[in-house]
Amino acid sequence: MRLLFLRVLAIVSWVAGALSHRANHVAHRRHAVESVTLARARRLEAHRNITIHIGLKQQHLDGIEETLMSVSHPDSPMYGQHWSPAKVAKHFAPSDATVSAVESWLIKAGFHPDQLRLSRSKGWISIRTSVPDIGFLLKMECDVHTHSPGHERISCESSLVPEEVREHVDLIRVTHVHKDAPLLKYSNHTQSKTPSFSKPLPDGIVVHGVPSLANCDKFTTPQCLRQLYSIDIKPEVPQRNSFAVVEFTPQAYLGSDLDLFFSHFSTSQEKKRPVLVSIDGGVVQQQNQSSTYDGEGDLDLEYAMALIDPTPVTLLQTGDLVQGGGFDNWLDAVDGSFCTFEGGDDPNQDGVYPDTQPGGFDHPESCGIIAPPKVVTVSYDQDEFTATVAYAMRQCYEYAKLGLMGTTILYSSGDYGVAGNGGACLQDKSRCRPINVGKGGRFNPSFPATCPYITAVGATQINPNSTVYEPESACEQFAHSGGGFSNIFPMPFYQEAAVKGYLKNHPPPYTAEQYNNSGMVRAYPDLSANGANIVVARNGNLSFTYGTSASVQVIGAIMTLINDARLARGKGTVGFINPLIYLPAYSSAFHDITTGSNQGCGTPGFTAAKGWDPVTGVGTPNTTVLLDMLLRLP
What we know:
The chain is an alpha/beta fold. It folds into 2 domains: 2-58 and 93-177, no CATH class; 197-632, CATH 3.40.50.200. It has 15 helices and 26 strands. Strands 11, 12, 13, 14, 16, 18, 19 and 22 form an 8-stranded mixed β-sheet that branches. A 4-stranded antiparallel β-sheet has the order 4-5-3-9.
């Protein structure tokens, strides 16, 4: 009874405080655009218990671009002097004043200090509370949404915080329902896999033992790619190097498919496998075997491994079989400072661990379990509109931190041109709601490709009846290179001249109704590689595939080989490459792609042009020239 009295007294005090301060509460959480892909089922029941994670404002984020450029721009005297993880964590940790301000607010609102949990990185304060309490504290309402038949999730919108603490709060997440009041979770694959379109090899084409490069316009193999991009680097210190490929469970690979591929194109690698790092219960599942489950993993690993042999490839297998994982999950694993108390990842985007569901990974989240690899490739994306601004920005800052540590982060730019996954576009004017595929609408950019601190990779093709010795064009066979302009991120200074030059010299024939034409936002992709007629081994057969999933592995392999050459000479890794590739002095290291487009949303999309363009970026790499230039750097 005494506990009940104290609880009532605390709530009364809280209500009084909330009412007295209601006038100075300000909106905090919002989506870049609102999704209509989920159906609201009901208001979240009042008896349920939830956890609130309050992301504290980190220090020095306003200068993160300048800090990253200091170690990434080749003209900087500090080029290549990458930071240690400890230095990065300390530099960006929230100030003591921020921690104190938020704790004081919560205690005044009625929480006991023992209820507040500060993460070890000082980045988050977490509170276990109830649905009514979240309404009092944040003026927030939570709903249950239907993701698919039998699967639900909670969504809490329109949070408010007092004006005096607004500057100290970065974002707010309502992450999970506790064991005593379970809510059925859904499979957290909200990041849509960059789809790779495929078809069987035509009858009569024998791939094994092809003696020449004459048929590369019909099927692209590792040999074609080596010739296209002058990839002729023999690894010297493979064990000192690292290249990681991210996959999200249940996506996996089949060892027999790797062996089939290697038997044709890299015989020394038969029976070799990637080095598995299991993140949050990630497994190379074998229960489901089809192109839906094995296609992405087979493609990514076959090309990543074949192009850098004998350098080992690490597989960052992310998420358990029950709920899977998202981008934050693999970031948690490579940088412990990104982790939050008891999960803290966005349940609308990521897997939240421990996972207490039957068969789930019921252990602490994988936090800082592996040092950041030197190169990481991700063949997955989500439509930018599906992310809240706070979620997208906080994740993007983490990519900048990894760049500070010397890691090159590469994401595919998408396969639907200016449209989003599945060809979906946004409603005119509102810029916020997806419409039916094929009816046109506003262009739908991709995330994380629009983050200015990653390198976005588009796709090219060898034109029909052309050879590897002739210029490529933008990919227009089945897949169209993703590219365009962000609705969230401002333009980074490293691409200002290139993008403004494109808009001036090749103005797109579209208005602000169709894309963000302000000329002040992040544009993508940054560069490209072949993504057409890619030969892969899938489910025991050789077939064709298309898309930027292949392209990003090619660029990842090239950067890994360049890192090897630098490491062998006592130099550091290249790290964040965008400031370098946009410099006119480095233009000779890229094949400029000037033909093709990335159609979508009922339009031809943007067109490739001389110099940078929002279809193929600065072009495709000439590895020999790029290697020579990067070996000259300290």
